[in-house]
């Protein structure tokens, strides 16, 4: 692409090759060929983004050339170019090689290693990086964890391994302690986080003796699979749990713990809400494709008990009508009380059935097909409702851009969605009561109020401008004669006054006048209380000798301000410190006036030099 740019071809080009590539490789990659239009659009977007990156990177590279010593480009700069601009090292090397310059690759690699080490330290799953071999031994000895969560929410199981967990390692406040444990059982009803669905929560109980009632050992707040096949349950232990598991920390299980059967219970309410949100995600996916087109593909999802989030490929924001249509389609399926059927079959048979497979998702040879009548059929290992009516209601909360060509929808279902409707209904009833309206009138009434408010705002601006015009009769009086027939007027006006409109009144009245108008506002920062100074320097366009932009810019520089504009009109600002926080040092208003008066005098002197 860089060479195309060097040849003078600036427009995006590569996406035009997609039809040719698929014509050659279509039979080999049949799934890709089905999505040719999507691939072409995405490649076009990516090419545009890369060209922007190329331009940005080339500017950075050009600036970095100043730091080249003995023909070596600093590796730290090459890494910064890679890290911030997305410039690959080989591209940087190619460009610099053309100039006879080499990159300090060793230094680049050192910077890369430091970043990778930081990334590994911040990775949530780091607590098992040192136990990988031990986990694989456990998997070899006992086989994979048997997942029973499709059939039951509670089971008794044998404890195979226990790790005492540092609180910080599992995302909790505080240092290292033994109140949190990671437990691996022979079987479990707990769903481990995967496929966008969050893990189940619940409890672990045990009957520690024949005479004792079952004891709550702790709350399961997360479940993960650090290696494929093993479920790890993260437990926040109770006092009984700490006393029990403390004896077997670091995997040192006693005879009684090995023989003891633990009761694992999933939180039924949480699981039910997750099921509803997950099944609604499948319905949303299909509704999006039916409404927007077959280019819509899932690009990520998150399903919890609170809400669902669905990312999908699309190239523009959805309109209110489109969102309403999508929501209605999902709710129509919910109302139809369609049975949800789940079957296990081979990957090839599932594809023949027309089941949707998610791009980038890893599937085993035997897959699970989740089907909702004729409306939706997807490969999925998650938990689902038995009938669409269990979802109750589906409500879209928001739609937004996630990245180039990818959109995001957030939504809620069942009790959360119904509660939201009830709350909005209560607000509507409250407004109808306050405004003394009958149901159905509020929409038109609000539109009427908005139009009325706009009219009042226009009238307010008109009256304000008229008042300014009247006040200007006295404000613009007593002008100072500079030289010849040039006159000068400096004036402070209210902070909410439009400086440009105010100056319009002046130049309409005084063709040979120069106006210096300013406002002052109090501004509080972390270190001090300051006065924000905003100014306009204005004269008539016919006064070609006076360059307002240059004069104001030079003047503001003296008080660390900035300004610019045209020859006939320039604006700028500065901050004048009045008081340092935490000290008794303070300057009164008179010092601010001194600073402004000195600036005005500097401006006048500059004008006198040219007229």
Written overview of the protein:
By secondary structure, this protein is an alpha+beta fold. The chain is 42% helix and 25% strand. Strand 20 and strand 21 (528-539) form a beta hairpin. Mean pLDDT is 85; it is low at 168-177 and 581-587.
User: How confident overall, as mean pLDDT?
Assistant: 85
Low-confidence stretches: 168-177, 581-587
Spatially, the strands of the biggest sheet line up as: 4-5-9-8-7-10
What percent of residues adopt helix (DSSP H or I)? 40-55%
List the helices and strands and how they pair.
Elements lengths: L1 H5 L11 H8 L4 H5 L1 H29 L7 E2 L1 H11 L3 H9 L4 E2 L1 H18 L9 H11 L3 E2 L6 E12 L14 E6 L1 E2 L13 E5 L8 E10 L7 E6 L1 H7 L9 H5 L1 E6 L1 H25 L5 E6 L4 E6 L6 H16 L4 E7 H7 L12 E7 L3 E4 L14 E10 L2 E8 H22 L6 H34 L4 E4 L2 E7 L6 H11 L3 E12 L3 E12 L8 H10 L4 E4 L3 E12 L8 H22 L1
Parallel strand pairs: 1-2, 3-6, 19-20
Antiparallel strand pairs: 4-5, 4-10, 5-9, 7-8, 7-10, 8-9, 11-12, 12-17, 13-14, 14-15, 16-17, 18-19, 20-21, 21-23, 22-23
Helix pairs in contact: 4-5, 5-7, 11-12, 15-16, 17-18
């Amino acid at each position: 692409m860089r060479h195309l740019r060097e040849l003078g071809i600036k427009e995006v080009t590569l996406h035009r090759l997609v039809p040719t590539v698929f014509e050659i490789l279509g039979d080999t990659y049949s799934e890709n060929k089905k999505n040719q239009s999507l691939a072409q659009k995405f490649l076009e977007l990516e090419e545009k983004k890369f060209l922007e990156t190329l331009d940005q990177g080339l500017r950075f590279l050009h600036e970095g050339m100043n730091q080249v010593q003995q023909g070596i480009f600093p590796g730290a700069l090459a890494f910064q170019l890679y890290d911030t601009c997305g410039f690959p090292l080989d591209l940087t090397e190619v460009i610099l090689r053309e100039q006879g310059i080499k990159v300090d690759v060793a230094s680049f690699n050192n910077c890369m290693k430091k970043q990778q080490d930081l990334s590994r330290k911040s990775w949530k799953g780091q607590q098992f990086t040192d136990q990988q071999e031990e986990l694989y031994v456990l998997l070899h000895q006992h086989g994979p964890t048997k997942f029973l969560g499709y059939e039951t929410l509670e089971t008794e199981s044998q404890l195979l391994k226990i790790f005492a967990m540092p609180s910080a390692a599992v995302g909790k406040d505080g240092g290292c302690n033994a109140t949190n444990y990671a437990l691996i059982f022979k079987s479990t009803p707990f769903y481990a986080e995967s496929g966008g669905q969050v893990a189940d929560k619940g409890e672990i109980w045990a009957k520690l003796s024949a005479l004792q009632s079952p004891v709550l050992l702790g709350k399961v707040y997360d479940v993960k699979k650090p290696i494929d096949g093993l479920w790890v349950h993260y437990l926040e232990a109770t006092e009984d749990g700490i006393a029990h598991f403390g004896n077997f920390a670091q995997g040192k299980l006693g005879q009684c713990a090995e023989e003891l059967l633990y009761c694992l219970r999933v939180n039924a309410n949480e699981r039910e809400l997750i099921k509803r949100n997950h099944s609604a995600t499948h319905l949303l996916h299909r509704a999006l494709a039916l409404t927007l087109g077959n280019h819509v593909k899932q690009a990520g999802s998150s399903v919890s008990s609170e809400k669902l989030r669905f990312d999908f490929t699309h190239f523009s924001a959805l309109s209110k009508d489109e969102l309403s249509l999508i929501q209605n389609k999902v709710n129509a399926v919910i109302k139809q009380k369609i049975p949800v059927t789940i079957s296990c079959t081979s990957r090839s048979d599932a594809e023949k059935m027309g089941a949707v497979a998610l791009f980038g998702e890893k599937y085993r040879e035997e897959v699970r097909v989740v089907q909702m009548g004729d409306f939706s059929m997807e490969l999925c290992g998650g938990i689902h409702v038995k009938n669409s009516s269990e979802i109750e209601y589906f409500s879209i909360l928001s739609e937004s851009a996630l990245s180039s060509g990818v959109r995001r929808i957030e939504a809620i279902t069942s009790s959360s969605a119904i509660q939201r409707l009830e709350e909005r209904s209560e607000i509507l009833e409250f407004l109808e009561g306050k405004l003394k309206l009958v149901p159905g009138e509020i929409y038109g009434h609000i539109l009427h109020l908005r139009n009325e408010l706009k009219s009042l705002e226009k009238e307010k601006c008109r009256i304000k401008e008229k008042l300014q015009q009247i006040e200007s009769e006295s404000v613009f009086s007593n002008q100072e004669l500079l030289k010849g027939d040039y006159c000068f007027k400096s004036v402070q006006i209210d902070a909410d006054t439009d400086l440009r409109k105010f100056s319009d009144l002046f130049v309409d009245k005084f063709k040979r006048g120069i106006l210096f108008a300013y406002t002052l506002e109090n501004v509080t920062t972390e270190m001090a209380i300051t006065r924000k100074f905003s100014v306009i320097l204005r004269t008539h366009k016919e006064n070609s000798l006076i360059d307002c932009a240059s004069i104001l810019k030079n003047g503001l520089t003296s008080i660390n301000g900035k300004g610019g504009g045209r020859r006939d009109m320039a604006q700028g600002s500065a901050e004048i410190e009045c008081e340092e926080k935490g000290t008794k040092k303070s300057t009164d208003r008179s010092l601010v006036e001194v600073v402004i008066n000195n600036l005005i005098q500097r401006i006048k002197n500059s004008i006198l030099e040219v007229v």
